[in-house]
Amino acid sequence: MTETEQASQYPPGWWIVALSREVHSQKPLGIKRFGKNLVFWRSEGNKVHALDDLCPHRSVKLSLGRVRDNCLECPFHGFRFSPDGNCALIPETGKPAPGIAVPSYAVEERDGYIWLWWPGSNGQTGRVGEPALFEEVTAQTMSWWDDAVDQGCHATRAIENQLDTAHLAFVHATTIGRGSNPKERKRVVAKEMEIKIELGNVPEAIPYIRLCLPNYWINVIHPRFMATIAFAPVDEGRVRLYMRTYQRFIVFPIIGRLITWVLNVVNRVILNQDTRVVESHPVGTAFAGLEMKEQLVGSDLAIREFRKWWANELQKASSKEE
């Protein structure tokens, strides 16, 4: 599948694509997201920027270069590109070159995450709205710990796995699924940019799961304990899961951080149980399942809502192109 075809698989929106600590002040970060090679770097004021990781002069990776004078300098011939992607300097002429540019992306840094406005297949970089974390996390200060796990599947498969409560009794029979009853139906509430699964018997009560579309998931287990995952799409066969565990039981910073680290280790064990299964999916988006005639059942309501939202967003993006 070509880079353009892969890019068209993802609807426009604010996506969490990296952790703040991954983007250093002097060294550019080259990573693949949405099937494209992107470069992230910081200018004065610690501001994060993102460009395609490809110099338009001779097609080398800009991520191999360095930051100079608030620009990203190509390692091959020293062409410098400003945050908006325009060529600010060609060394051999000593002048900028307005006709030479690299595609740029709107980026925001919040709560330790790097958010990127993905324009979708039409390539228009105009941003819409602002990224926002869940109020459960931002309302009060919590101790937290980051971790990252790669899975060999499409991002949609990884997201759907975290919306699937029926698999707990089988995939996680030795951990969180012990005693789980797959016959128990969970109430699913779908809104414009959110899918919520109520895990208890009382509506609007804890525990519950929420997916903030397109790629931020939270499991509220207790008012003082919750886990989140951001699903950063790498390409059609890979996704990076940024896990974060929050707790508010222990207020002493050092002890609190240690506890969240331990909890993340436990979460990694649980996630490894998922990985064995989800990596057996065919390569590509979950919606290839329509061609394979996946036969969803009653417990797949949240997955149905997710697929409906995704298809609608892609359709809207396609209509705007026309």
Keywords:
322 residues; alpha+beta; Rieske Iron-sulfur Protein; Naphthalene 1,2-dioxygenase Alpha Subunit, Chain A, domain 1; 2 domains; seven-stranded antiparallel beta sheet; five-stranded antiparallel beta sheet; 7 helices; 19 strands; 23% helix; 34% strand; globular
Task: Characterise the protein shown here.
It is globular, with a radius of gyration of 21 Å. The longest helix is centred in the last third of the chain and has 26 residues. The chain is an alpha+beta fold and 322 residues long. The strands form four sheets. A seven-stranded antiparallel sheet has the order 13-19-18-17-16-15-14. The protein has a five-stranded antiparallel sheet with strand order 5-6-7-8-9, with no helix packed on it. It has two domains: 104 residues, Rieske [2Fe-2S] iron-sulphur domain (Rieske Iron-sulfur Protein, 3-layer Sandwich); 179 residues, Alpha-Beta Complex (Naphthalene 1,2-dioxygenase Alpha Subunit, Chain A, domain 1).
CATH topology of the largest domain: Naphthalene 1,2-dioxygenase Alpha Subunit, Chain A, domain 1
Radius of gyration over alpha carbons? Answer: 21 Å
Largest β-sheet summary: 7 strands, antiparallel
Would you list the SSEs in sequence order as H and E? HEEEEEEEEEEEEHEHHEEEEEEHHH
Distance between the termini: 23 Å
The DSSP helix count reads 7
Task: Please state how the strands of the largest beta sheet are arranged side by side.
Answer: 13-19-18-17-16-15-14
**Annotated CATH architecture of the largest domain:** Alpha-Beta Complex
Broad CATH class of the largest domain: Alpha Beta
- In one word, what is the shape? globular
Structural class: alpha+beta
How many strand units?
Answer: 19
Number of domains: 2
Low-confidence stretches: none
Helix content: 10-25%
Supply the CATH superfamily name of the largest domain: Naphthalene 1,2-dioxygenase Alpha Subunit, Chain A, domain 1
